[in-house]
Design brief:
The protein has 319 residues and is an all-alpha fold. It has a domain of 210 residues. The chain has 12 helices and no strands. The chain is globular. The two termini are 35 Å apart.
Length: 319
C-alpha cells in the first residue's frame, strides 16, 4: 500500500499551489500552441477552430497541436514540478516505482476487461440524466458543452490510416494516461489522503475532481468510477503505473474500436450503447471479486516485504 509522506505545507495550500501551477502551465501552453498554429497555418485557422469548422484545411492538425501544447504537456509537467520543487517528495506524490508484483498488472487488465459491460450501464444511465424543469437552462448548457467536446473528439479521431490510429493511441491512450495519472492519482490523491487522513476519501475526492476536470457532464458518472478504479489500483500497488496501464487500456481501446468501425472491420458502433442487464450485473460481481483479489495480493506483498526486512535486519552485523 502507498505510504503518504508528510509535508510542512498544509494540504489545502498544496492543492491551491498545484491548481495554480497547472492552470498557469495550461494557459502558457495554449498561447504557445496558438502561436505555433498561427505561424504554420495562419490566423484564419484559429478562427476556424473557434467556430468548430472541422472541415477546413489544417484544422484537425491544429487541434492536435493545441491539445498537446495546452493539456497533455502541462498536465505532465505540473505534477512533476509540484512534487519535486514544492513539496520535495517526488516518490511519495508521483509513486513512480516500477518494480512491483506482475500480478498487479495482470489483475488490472482483467478488471478493465471484465468491467466493460458494467461501465456501459453507467454510460447509458448518465446519458439519460434529466434535470428538473426549473434547471432546463443548465441541462441545455451542459448538453452544449458535451456536444462541443464530442465534435472536437470526432475531429481528432478521423483516422484514415493505420499510422493515424497509432498516433491517436500514443497521444490519447499513453501520453494522456501518464499525464493525468501523475496529476490526479499522484498529486491530487496524495494531497486529499493526507488532508482527510483516509485513503478512501482521498481516492474518491480525486476521482470526482478528475471527472469534473473533463467538463463532460453526461459522462461524469462512468469517468468518476474509472477514477476510483485507478485510485485503488495505485494505492494498493504503491505504483502509479498500474493506474497508467488501466487508463491506457480504457482510452486506447476506445481509439482502436473507433478505427476498426471507421474502416468497417467491425459492424457495431463503439459510441452506441450495448448494455445487457444480466451481463452488466455479472460484470459488476466479477469486478468486485477481482478488486478483492487485487487487495489481497497487496496485503500478501506487504507482509513479504515486512518479513524480508526483518530477516535482513537479523543478518546485519556491524563491526
Amino acid at each position: 500500500m502507498t505510504v503518504e509522506a508528510p509535508s510542512k505545507m498544509h494540504p489545502s495550500m498544496q492543492f491551491l499551489v498545484l491548481i495554480g501551477i497547472s492552470l498557469g502551465m495550461m494557459i502558457a501552453g495554449t498561447l504557445i500552441g496558438m502561436a505555433l498554429v498561427t505561424v504554420l497555418y495562419g490566423l484564419g485557422t484559429i478562427n476556424q477552430i473557434m467556430a468548430f469548422d472541422t472541415t477546413a484545411p489544417n484544422v484537425t492538425t491544429s487541434i492536435w497541436i493545441l491539445q498537446i501544447a495546452s493539456t497533455t504537456i502541462p498536465l505532465f509537467i505540473a505534477p512533476v514540478v509540484f512534487a519535486r520543487y514544492v513539496v520535495n517528495e517526488p516518490k511519495a506524490y508521483l509513486k513512480p516505482a516500477i518494480k512491483i508484483a506482475p500480478a498487479f498488472f495482470g489483475l488490472v487488465l482483467l478488471v478493465m476487461l471484465v468491467s466493460m459491460p458494467f461501465m456501459e450501464f453507467l454510460i447509458d444511465m448518465n446519458q439519460k440524466m434529466v434535470l428538473p424543469h426549473s434547471l432546463k437552462w443548465l441541462q441545455q448548457w451542459m448538453r452544449d458543452k458535451e456536444d462541443a467536446a464530442t465534435t472536437e473528439m470526432q475531429a481528432l479521431l478521423q483516422m484514415k490510416t493505420f499510422g493515424s490510429m497509432l498516433f491517436a493511441v500514443l497521444e490519447i491512450g499513453l501520453l494522456t494516461a501518464i499525464a493525468e495519472e501523475f496529476l490526479f492519482r499522484g498529486c491530487v490523491q496524495s494531497i486529499f489522503t493526507s488532508w482527510t487522513k483516509n485513503h478512501h476519501w482521498g481516492i474518491w475526492i480525486a476521482a470526482i475532481i478528475f471527472s469534473a476536470f473533463h467538463m463532460e457532464f453526461f459522462g461524469f458518472l462512468p469517468r468518476m468510477v474509472l477514477g476510483v478504479f485507478f485510485g485503488y489500483f495505485v494505492y494498493w500497488s504503491g505504483s502509479i503505473w498500474t493506474g497508467v496501464l488501466a487508463h491506457f487500456i480504457n482510452n486506447g481501446t476506445d481509439v482502436v474500436l473507433t478505427y476498426l468501425f471507421q474502416q468497417k472491420i467491425i459492424s457495431f458502433d463503439p459510441d452506441s450503447s450495448h448494455y445487457n442487464y444480466i451481463i452488466g450485473t455479472l460484470s459488476l460481481i466479477f469486478t468486485v471479486f477481482l478488486f478483492f483479489v487485487y487487495q489481497k495480493v497487496s496485503v500478501t506483498k506487504n507482509k513479504l516485504v515486512e518479513q524480508n526486512g526483518k530477516g535482513l535486519g537479523k543478518n546485519l552485523h556491524f563491526e
